[in-house]
Design goal:
about 675 residues, alpha/beta, Rossmann fold, Helicase, Ruva Protein, domain 3, 4 domains, seven-stranded parallel β-sheet, five-stranded parallel β-sheet, 25 helices, globular
């Protein structure tokens, strides 16, 4: 319709995937090279994940167009809850093999014979499984078994698993260990940044002969990115409507006002409701979002959230409430400790040094007074400390909605205070943001209403975008803490330990790993940041055990922690959140499973876990300084949270308004 008016040779923003429009963003370029690498290797598995509309199918079609059919026979299936037996039949049909009525054993024999025939003619088979997150673990295991087919020393089948982020959760399951060993490369397609969104729009326009009509304002490109969060399919849908809107008015320019109007119209079409103006708080002063950061590390998360909140005109202003000791520790460099967390609206409450219970009580009393004086629209609970829980309880008792970030985080052993606080914080939430579907399902099983749960991705990549450039060199920390600086030039580097559990059992688990490494002939430097109250006791325990390679240091936060992770050879942790941070920086991580960190008291289980972890560390170090590419650093979870929070606040305001009308 609008193509002829603007002199375009065709529609530039079709929803269906078209490899001719393939745009190589940073994330897509990485994923594409992984696929090409995998196709060249001709064995094992390549895993590509991404959100709905991220461009996975377009990427696959671009690769298929490049492959030489004389050398590679490619088949593609789209998984729709296939079981193990159904999957084998689907694979046969995808390669054009008639398997109807055959038993499973006959299907396997027929498939192997077909694949061997290809090998004798110097061709090989490539299987692409799209929407692989729908596969059952049993079906994935059948794929792994197919990868065992060989002709001489050559694998007969290679598989690409492509799906939504839930696929990663399936692959992480304990029973998927053998599959993980066959994964040659894995990457995640994150959303595009604002400059890439603009380049993507212009690329598709130029592909159909765009000569600058209609023109796009700079502010329009920024609004397109904000409205679509950098997801290609959403960009296509919005830009197609923008061109139609401009054409209907014979317009020659797409500006900020048009983008906002069209985006609002599209949202209203989906929800069936027209947007209503927000009501002001009593006195005509706009309400606010109060972000509570009980620790310095949580301030990094608060910073990225507040930046995302500030970018939306439909959200109230956000302010940060942080807590510090009074006075600050001697020699403390606030700028270094809080690297990357500077925000315009921050209030610091000084708490007296003393018993933790007294500090928590004072924090709760101070917050209660603040809520009485200026009640916020919601309290955003970020951390899982005692102060965070106390603030959430005070807000809930005062009728202030609690917004929980990082809800449904790995629970671990319920006897641990931090795990119990996580459960309580989640149950106080009026709206809970989970990092992944596994966390979302955990919240549902624990009784949270499904309409309160929103899966918006991990904030780790967003945190790094704010704090990464200001990360503190680990040499500064090591110099202060007495860790030998020679470890920074040692080819083996150092292993960073990050544990939610800093108990005696956790120390036993760490010492067990160290003992296993020494028995294998490895002396690996381990750096273990802990709270100041525990440092002396745990350091003495390590010294008594003769573990001189385990350095217990003062817990590092903010830029210091990011610097330690950034330069570590490997992270050893029991925290999903810390693993996300490591993954976003390309640092390998190993997790304490059941039997480590004091979760299982039986000594034999701890020894088995220590042996597994020691072998994993040895393999990682022996493999050289290899970083694991991942698209997490491109994530925009904070923007997704801001969008959901805006809709939730609007819906809540509407409910309150209807209640007011009914009562009058």
């Amino acid at each position: 319709m609008y193509e002829q008016f603007y002199g375009l040779s065709g529609p530039p923003f079709q929803i269906h995937p078209d490899p001719g429009f393939y745009f190589e963003s940073k994330g897509h370029a990485t994923a594409y090279q992984y696929l090409r690498f995998g196709a060249f290797q001709g064995e094992g598995f390549i895993v590509v994940t991404g959100e709905i509309g991220a461009g996975k199918t377009t990427l696959l079609r671009a690769l298929l167009a490049e492959l030489d059919p004389a050398k590679i026979v490619a088949a593609q299936i789209v998984s729709t809850q296939l079981g193990a037996d159904d999957l084998l039949s689907a694979v046969g049909l995808a390669f054009g093999i008639n398997v109807e009525g055959l038993s499973k054993a006959r299907v396997l024999v027929t498939l192997e014979a077909y694949l061997a025939t290809l090998a004798t003619s110097n061709r090989r088979a490539l299987l692409i499984v799209d929407e692989a997150q729908n596969l059952s673990p049993g079906a994935i295991e059948e794929l792994r078994m197919l990868s065992n087919f060989q002709f001489g020393s050559k694998a007969l089948l290679q598989s690409f698993l492509v799906g939504q982020p839930e696929l990663r959760d399936i692959i992480r399951l304990p029973q998927m260990e053998q599959l993980r060993q066959r994964v040659l490369a894995s990457c995640h397609l994150g959303p595009m940044e604002a400059p890439e969104t603009r380049a993507y729009v212009e690329h598709r326009l130029r592909h159909v002969g765009w000569s600058g009509r209609p023109a796009f304002d700079d502010e329009a490109f920024a609004a397109i990115h904000q409205a679509t969060q950098g997801v290609p399919r959403r960009i296509n849908a919005l830009c197609s409507r923008l061109l139609l809107s401009a054409f209907l008015e014979s317009g020659e320019r797409i500006d900020l006002e048009r983008v906002r109007r069209v985006e609002r119209e599209m949202r209203e079409e989906i929800t069936g409701e027209r947007e209503k103006p927000r009501a002001a708080a009593p006195g005509g002063v706009a309400s606010s979002l109060l972000c509570v950061a009980g620790s310095e590390r949580d301030e990094l998360v608060a910073a990225v959230l507040m930046r995302a909140f500030a970018a939306r005109e439909d959200l109230p202003p956000a302010r940060l409430l942080r807590f510090t000791e009074a006075p600050e520790p001697a020699g403390d460099t606030v700028a270094a400790r809080r690297a990357g967390t500077a925000v315009d609206a921050a209030q610091t409450l000084e708490l007296p040094a003393g018993p933790p219970a007294a500090r928590v009580a004072q924090a709760a009393a101070a917050l209660a007074a603040m809520l009485d004086a200026s009640p916020p629209a919601a309290l955003v609970a970020i951390g899982d400390g005692a102060i965070d829980l106390a603030c959430a309880i005070v807000a809930s008792e005062a009728g202030i909605p609690v917004v929980r970030v990082d809800a449904g985080a790995s629970r671990g052993r319920r006897a641990l205070p931090r795990q119990r606080r996580r459960v309580l914080l989640d149950h106080l939430a009026s709206v809970a943001f989970a990092a992944d579907p596994v966390a979302g399902r955990l919240l549902e099983t624990e009784g949270l209403p499904s309409h309160c749960i929103h899966v918006c991705g991990s904030l780790a990549g967003d945190v790094l975008r704010v704090g990464f450039s200001s990360s503190v060199d680990p040499g500064q920390v090591f110099r202060r803490e007495g860790v030998p600086l020679s470890v920074l030039s040692d080819p083996a580097g150092y292993v960073l330990i990050g544990l939610d559990d800093s108990s005696e059992e956790a120390a036993d688990a760490v010492l067990g790993v160290d003992a296993q490494l020494r028995s294998m002939g490895w002396r690996v430097r381990m750096v273990w940041p802990v709270e100041s109250a525990l440092r002396e006791r745990l350091a003495a325990r390590c010294a008594d055990a003769g573990a001189g390679a385990v350095n217990v240091i003062e817990a590092s936060a903010g830029g210091e922690w990011l610097g330690l992770v950034r330069h570590a050879r490997c992270l050893l942790t029991d925290s999903d959140r810390l693993r996300d941070e490591a993954r976003a920086m390309g640092v390998p991580s190993l997790g304490f499973d059941e039997g480590a960190g004091g979760r299982v008291g039986e000594a034999g289980a701890r020894r088995q876990s220590a042996l597994r972890l020691a072998q994993g560390l040895a393999d990682t170090i022996a493999g050289g300084d290899v970083r694991i590419p991942c698209g997490a650093e491109q994530g925009s979870s904070a923007e997704r949270i801001a969008g959901v929070l805006s809709d939730w606040l609007l819906a809540r305001q509407d409910r309150n308004y209807r209640t007011f009308l009914e009562s009058t």
